Amino acid sequence: MNNQSATPSSSKNLLILAVIVIAILIGVIIYLFNNKQELTIENQEVKTELDETIQLKEELEVQYEEALADLESLRGENEALNQLIDNQKLELTGQKNRIIGLLKRSSSLDKAKAEISKLNEQIAFFKEERERWALEKESLLAEKNRQDSINQTLNSRLDESKQTNDYLTSVTRDLTVEKSKLEKEKSSLAKKVDKASMIKADKISVKTLQKKDNGKNVSRKNADNVNLLEICFLPLPNPSASGDGEKFIVRVISPRGETVSLNTNISVFNHPESGDEIQYTFETKEIQTINGTQTACFNWEPSSLLSPGTYKVEIYNKAYLAGSSSFSLK
Description:
Helices cover 56% and strands 18% of the residues.
């Protein structure tokens, strides 16, 4: 009897224990299932963030490279623009590195997205600037081409002008030489004509006089008393002369070989053949009648006392010696 009553009690206890164990297992299973679900969700979120981070890195790299290529396409000969491009590239590189640093930390993903948004805005700004620079570059290139065309045209015209100028210079030089030659020939011919048409002076005589206060002229031979010279000569007709009136140049040469002239007036003429300057004493008035019979006389008063000795008198017509004579004073 006792054994039979103990067996059912023991079985009951085992059943209760089994129920408790099963309940505990079920609870553990439910806990583990719930925990697994949470871990699955967290893993999915982590995977999503990782995928997003990778995608952001890839997009960032593409945008960065495109921005660099856009900037580099604007590089040219303008040093200021090239320096600006280098500065913009440095700024892009720094911003890219900051974003990569943020993407490495999951907690900074939102900050990275914000930086990427700023970068996109900056890249958009760079693209606008690129378009503006491209237009400016195109405009500058067009202006450069226009200036090159203008310079080419000017250089071409300059070459033509230089050739024309060289030709004109050559022609002018030839004309100058020819003109000089003609002038020399003309001058030589004029000298020949003058020499051929010269009026000779014949029968030259000199009276040494003293001019008195009463107006009378007295002949004197002493140099101290002579204050007036009366020079006369006979102009001889020349068929080659023009027939117009003629002037003569008179040169009185002292015993010392010096031309006697007024102290206040020194006059010279050029010898037509030698070109030498010759000082003369005075020039006569124009002689209208030259027929070989009418003598011309001219008075000349020296400004200082004459010296004793032999004087020479030379008469010139058209700068050629037409005749000469002499006189003496005591």
